[in-house]
């Protein structure tokens, strides 16, 4: 939270432009202490008057000193210093600017030194160009960091002592549902909501194991239910067996400390209340929770829900992976190109690849492994034919710019660098590192231009035998988990285009050597689903009666002919009539 104040009009625009920095941490915020905002403003005003400065802007931070440097407002100020728009900052004390708890916290001083900017505080100002100024500011910063760790230790020590006495050092909102704590008398109490928790334990003991169902009954989320059922405080015992560990950054960018287990001698146990559930019953609940979780995981592990195509299938039109649509009980599952998936279509712009039925695609995959790779001779034939073809054709996914033109461009860039060095724009070190980067890039391109040696027939046959062995295992085992594992062992990618498997890539480990990573084109693609029916011009194919009829027999783009549609409508009408007349009224 930061507020940028407009520049006061009474302030003269002469003098050295500086930024005023006010900072309070969340703890200091409420208290009227030395660090109070009004006091900081007063000190800064005096500094500005005495030193003849000009306040260009004011920022107000409400964060801890360890993270103040990373605050967006603070970064803006540092950027202004780098640009030269302002020539220093004013703060009441150096600890308002930073309290480094790590050595890299001092890096902020570098910006000031580079730009010859000064730090003005109430009692002294620091010119970082001079060695004494640098030393002073570093020492002052280190002391500020040390003070912080002292404050922290004192605070944590007091909290820990309270915990050991069975008191609660934290705010009421850290307590679980139905439990309250009076800080003036240091007593634990139950709040009226404890009735909900009692009901929850009762329901669970009566056999309701579904967390969502339990949550609906008492008005909580399913995760909330789980945590309540596991909280030992409801037996009356307050057990603290965890503490905050190392710092971590969450996915949303927030800094937090993970919870880690305490050492056995540090675990705190206190009887603070008469429990609402006996300890034996609580242990029974814990056993049931563990069993439910175990059963759930086991059930998932043995379920036949294995999708052979995911992870290995890729689109032959655009190169994106193929995704699965969500499973539904009534409709078939489809495999779609990522570029057509509803989450990515907007970004990737869609693809011409039609959606494929999962069952048909899996049948085609099994056919590919079971028939096409069935004999070593057949596989070698495919590999050699593919190698001939790739030499003649450009591979489907080669980069848009030919490597030779990119090498030319790199040569030109190299020449420009040397020119820049000759004119004194670049230093020797910069020139060396930049030329090194260009040289590496050029090597990589030249590698792709070199013709690859084609492996001889005998070694291909040897490797093919290994692949065929694995493929044979694939068609004999019935376990889909193992089938998927074999598929993943053999292939890194299998490409589909429209309704055909057109090519694949073996995993580098499968065929040995580097050329195994090449794409293998299938001379005869493996079809997915039924081959498309060829119908004469002006005719269409009805998916119900399977007849080829003229287009006038179809209503717009519907895929059933008019007579099939009418028959279905009649049937539906009859069924509705019989069911509604047979149905009993809902309420009597
Ligand atoms: Zn695609
Ligand atoms: Zn029909």
From TrEMBL:
Pfam families per the UniProt record, alphabetical: Recombinase (PF07508), Resolvase (PF00239), Zn_ribbon_recom (PF13408)
Positions of region (Disordered): 569-588
Superkingdom of origin: Bacteria
InterPro entries (alphabetical): DNA_bind_recomb_sf, DNA_bind_recombinase_dom, Resolv_N, Resolvase-like_N_sf, SSR_resolvase, Zn_ribbon_recom_dom
GO molecular function, one term: DNA strand exchange activity
Biased composition regions of type Polar residues, renumbered to the chain: 579-588
Presence of the UniProt keyword DNA-binding in the record: yes
Name of this chain's protein: DNA invertase Pin-like site-specific DNA recombinase
Domain Resolvase/invertase-type recombinase catalytic, residue spans: 17-166
PROSITE patterns, per database record: RECOMBINASES_3 (PS51736)
UniProt entry keywords in alphabetical sequence: DNA recombination, DNA-binding
SMART domains reported for this sequence: Resolvase
